[in-house]
Amino acid sequence: MFRYIALIVIIILASACTGLHKPAKRTDYTIDITVDNDASGLVYLKKFHKGKWLTLDSTRIINRNFSFSGKVLFPERYYIQIPQTMSLVPVFVEGSDIIVNIDLDTIDNTTISGSSSNDEYEMFLDKLASFESQALSYINQYEKAKEVNNRELMEKLDSFINVAYTKKESFIDDYINTNNTSVISPYIAYRNIFRYNLKDLESISDTLDEFLSSSVYFGYINNRIKLLRRVAVGQPFINFTMEDTSGVSHSLAEMINGKYFLIDFWSSWCSPCRRQNPKLVALYNKYKDKDFDILGVSLDSERDKWILAIHVDSLPWIQVSDLQSWKNNASKLYGVLSIPSNVLIDPNGKIIARNLNAERLRSKLEEIFGI
């Protein structure tokens, strides 16, 4: 399930291509919050920035009420954290007076008013939910079929999953393109940045209205573009060294050694990765004596589960990991935000392909080796 097929076009707001989504000039905000249950102690206003949670403000609950205030130059997604719940209440903060009523028992019942950006994003999420529900239904059916090893049904459901995700992705992409002046479009693109390649992101950057360049999420998109340009097809590989299951270090530069080399990013907990592994094994066995090799880079964090998956899937090539999950050093170097993912390198150390599913990898190897 690397990429998906089919399409659906949904236009949510008739004012999409006008300036109606541009935020007001006001930059100061207030957030007045009420909780419907007894709660006490400190509460926090946070945001997620460069892979870390930042605390922007804190205060105390008094008689079930508290508030935050400050300045925000452009609408941004903030989160309210209350000690009594592990959940974070998200809200698009803009220069306005925002009212939040939190249901501590059922966070999903929280209501937010006063933020037009938040209203628009909630409308977007409501539409998106129907696609996610359909995909989840097929995934649950797939897992049940897997339990009884019903291969025929598994293949059928895998196709259904692909179509469901394609419809979801098409909806997201159409929203961004159609609502190219909306302040939430850069955020939506950022939230889905893991599935966009360099060409996709360059197109999104060009499509979004110039005034959206003030959005922090527009900045994230452009930073991602710079990273992907460093590891794009035609660029030299970036070397890294990492330990295998026995603690032996392996340098990518030493391993390539005049071969066509596939860096396969995967993990034991990644179902699409595990479904693809048998196909990779077949290709490896076919071309291993013809100057083709694979290096598995796992985004696992639990050593035992990583090693067990290697044995269960009978993966014969070298496997390395720093057991840092999504903070894996090699995955960061190559801009990997979703798995399965891979990079194909030629004997001269040049990147010649990225993110080939098993079928496209087979075609590429047939083209290279002539068989």
Write the layout of secondary structure elements.
Blueprint: E1 28-35, E2 42-49, E3 52-60, E4 65-71, E5 76-81, E6 88-93, E7 97-102, E8 111-113, H1 116-147, H2 151-178, H3 185-191, H4 198-207, H5 216-230, E9 241-243, E10 249-251, H6 252-256, E11 260-266, H7 271-287, E12 292-298, H8 303-312, E13 318-320, H9 329-333, E14 341-345, E15 351-354, H10 358-369
Parallel strand pairs: 1-7, 11-12, 12-13
Antiparallel strand pairs: 1-4, 2-3, 2-5, 5-6, 7-8, 9-10, 11-14, 14-15
Helix pairs in contact: 1-2, 2-3, 3-5, 4-5, 7-10
User: Could you give the order of strands across the largest sheet?
Assistant: 13-12-11-14-15
Q: How far apart are the first and last residues' alpha carbons, in Å?
A: 25 Å
CATH top level label of the domain at 241-369: Alpha Beta
CATH topology of the domain at 241-369: Glutaredoxin
Keywords:
elongated; Glutaredoxin; Immunoglobulin-like; 371 residues; four-stranded mixed sheet; 10 helices
